[in-house]
Automatic annotation (TrEMBL):
Signal sequence region: none
Lineage: Bacteria, Pseudomonadati, Pseudomonadota, Alphaproteobacteria, Hyphomicrobiales
Main location class: membrane
Compartments it resides in: Cell membrane
The name this protein goes by in its record: ABC transporter permease
GO cellular-component term (any): plasma membrane
Pfam families per UniProt: BPD_transp_2 (PF02653)
Transmembrane segments: 6-30, 42-60, 66-88, 95-117, 137-158, 190-208, 214-233, 240-257, 269-287
Keyword flag Membrane: yes
Organism, as annotated: Aurantimonas aggregata
Length: 308
């Protein structure tokens, strides 16, 4: 394998893994607080179309990424009001949020179909990335580096800070946390909003970096892979990083196989590879469901009703 091909594969793996990693980190924090939000795909789409619209309108891709985070948080706030305030079923509400996000993003994106915008380019000088080897280090989008920083930040927050301890306590035993004075609903609301912001940012990666354009259902179901990654990683940020890049490798294998013209596998099968891998991961986890239950937050998906 030539150096140029290896560099191209590594760059593609990082690009494919980054939106999954960012969105999954947000979902991990939400689930650590005891909230199961299956609306990641919908929030990613809302973030993707909002980020693209703002980038096209203002000509500033970075502002589009910030707007995508805000849009994802707004979408997550709808979920928070329904599930935490009105005690709606979290699974059903999350699925509804995905449907809502798919429809709203398609509607908002109609005027922007076929338009391109400036990409959110590398932050390092081009001279540093001129050499193929150094390009792997310095040639990425800012969001690639941000994803790595966020992984460490989430690990540090959950393991080394008092606020992280409170969040984990709320996810493990909401009644006990409430009894000693912790604001359970406030903690969960903030966690859900963070998850929405990260999903929006992850979605904007597709419209501001990878394409950069808008098309209906641009994320192509990657939000579901992000949710599966959280379980695959056993709710641990470090494992989540590894899992995201493994899935990025699977996605890259699909692209490389198509580019190489491998005709012995149908194109539809190659496109389905990432999702088949997701199903395989979930099946393996289900086979060991007893151990999965021991690492999952004890109150995950359960509604909380404050007692006097």
């Amino acid at each position: 394998m030539s150096t140029a091909l290896l560099v191209a594969i590594l760059m593609t793996v990082a690009a494919a893994a980054t939106p999954l990693l960012i969105a999954a980190l947000g979902e991990l924090v939400a689930e650590k607080s005891g909230v199961l939000n299956l609306g990641v795909e919908g929030m990613m789409l809302i973030g993707a179309v909002t980020g693209f619209a703002v980038a096209v309108t203002t000509g500033i891709p970075a502002l589009g990424a910030v707007a995508a985070m805000a849009a994802g948080a707004v979408a997550a706030s709808i979920f928070a009001v329904l599930t935490l305030g009105l005690m709606a079923n979290q699974v059903a509400t999350g699925l509804a949020l995905t449907i809502f996000g798919t429809g709203v993003s398609a509607l908002i994106g109609v005027p922007f179909v076929g338009i391109t915008t400036t990409t959110l380019g590398p932050i390092f000088p081009a001279s540093l990335a001129s050499d193929p080897v150094w390009r792997v280090v310095f040639g990425h989008s800012p969001l690639v580096y941000l994803g790595l920083i966020l992984t460490f930040a989430v690990w540090w927050f959950l393991k080394q800070t008092r606020a992280g301890l409170i969040l984990r306590a709320v996810g493990e035993s909401d009644s006990a946390a409430h009894s000693i004075g912790y604001p359970v609903l406030t903690v969960r609301t903030l966690a859900v909003l963070f998850g929405g912001a990260m999903a929006g940012l992850g979605g904007s990666y597709y419209s501001l970096v990878l394409t950069p354009m808008w098309a209906e259902r641009l994320t192509a179901g990657r939000g579901w892979i992000a949710i599966a990654l959280v379980v695959f990683a056993s709710w641990r940020p470090g494992r989540l990083l590894v899992g995201a890049y493994l899935f990025g490798l699977v996605l890259t294998m699909e692209l490389q196989a198509k580019a190489a013209g491998f005709n012995f596998l149908a194109p539809e099968f190659l496109s389905a590879l990432p999702y088949l891998a997701t199903i395989l991961v979930l099946a393996l986890i289900s086979a060991g469901r007893r151990s999965a239950r021991t690492v999952a937050p004890a109150c995950l998906g359960r509604p909380f009703r404050a007692s006097a």
